Amino acid sequence: MKPAGLAETAGCLAAGAKAFLLRAEALQGFGTDRDSFLKCFWGPTLAYPLYLIAMVQIDPMLSGNGAVPDFGWIAARTIGYVIAWIYWPVLLEVVCDRVGRPEAWVPLIVALVWTMLVPMLIQIVLILGVGPGSFLFGAPLLAVQIWMLVVHGWLLRQYLSTNLPLTIALVLGDFILSRFLHVIEESIARAAM
Fold first, then answer.
1. What is the 3-state secondary structure (H, E, C) of 6-32?
2. Can you tell me the distance from the alpha carbon of 102 to that of 92, in angstroms, rounded to the nearest whole number?
3. Is the CB of residue 60 less than 8 Å from the CB of residue 146?
4. d(CA 50, CA 53)
5. CA distance 26 to 18
6. CA atoms within 13 A on the CB side of 126
7. How many whole angstroms separate alpha carbon 85 and alpha carbon 78?
């Protein structure tokens, strides 16, 4: 498998943007095979440097005072980033099996990764462009994060045909688990400074 090319990456990101707007036809723009699954993780890999820069920008210990993150801080952020992109696909494999839709796992993960990359990039643009501390930062950031939960549920229903209570439970479970992991990442990053 070779990495996703520029045109393929742009096409999948465009499909992710359409899916982020709940346009069902966008789901046809994602691959459903093993190569598509492996290639979808190139998006978060390419976005990682921007993520790291944004994390420096919003870290009160680093932003504005010219401090440079040390190896421990970078390692904590890197490990947290990798875990954030991997833990949910692993758990969703079990969910797909339990709801009787194991064939939906690869297409769901491909769509989920490309689609969730869009709000991550929007948040990075807000952090780097507007900056923390402004109403122009906080309100749009919160709106994007809330909409991410809606889109996440919509994707689960599209691919797994889950009922509403199960969809809400899965989305909230992912949200709670991601917050928990983020707290751990923050603690490790603080201890490393």
1. HHHHHHHHHHHHHHHCCCHHHHHHCCC
2. 10
3. no
4. 5
5. 6
6. 20
7. 11
Which tokens belong to 29?
A: 């723009």
Residue count (the chain): 193
Quick one: pLDDT at residue 37?
A: 93
- Cβ(90)–Cβ(9) below 8 Å: no
What H or E segment, with its residue span, contains residue 102? none
How far from 118 is each of 19, 29, 101, 159, CA to CA, in Å?
A: 9, 15, 26, 19
Average of per-residue pLDDT across 33-43: 91
Global pTM reads 0.89
DSSP symbol at 33: S
Report pLDDT digits (tens) over 75-126: 999 999 999 999 999 999 999 999 999 999 999 999 999 999 999 999 999 8
Cα–Cα distance measured from residue 153 to residue 46, given in angstroms and rounded to the nearest whole number: 26
Residue 22 phi/psi, 5-degree rounding, is 65, 35
Distance CA 151, CA 19 (A): 8
Residue at 178: amino acid letter = S
- Structure-token match 């994007």, residue found: 144
Which residues contact residue 155 at a Cβ distance below 8 angstroms, ignoring those fewer than 6 apart?
Answer: 19, 108, 111, 112, 115
For residues 158 and 107, the answer to whether their CB atoms sit within 8 Å is no
Distance, in Å, from the CA atom of 185 to the CA atom of 52, rounded to the nearest integer, reads: 13
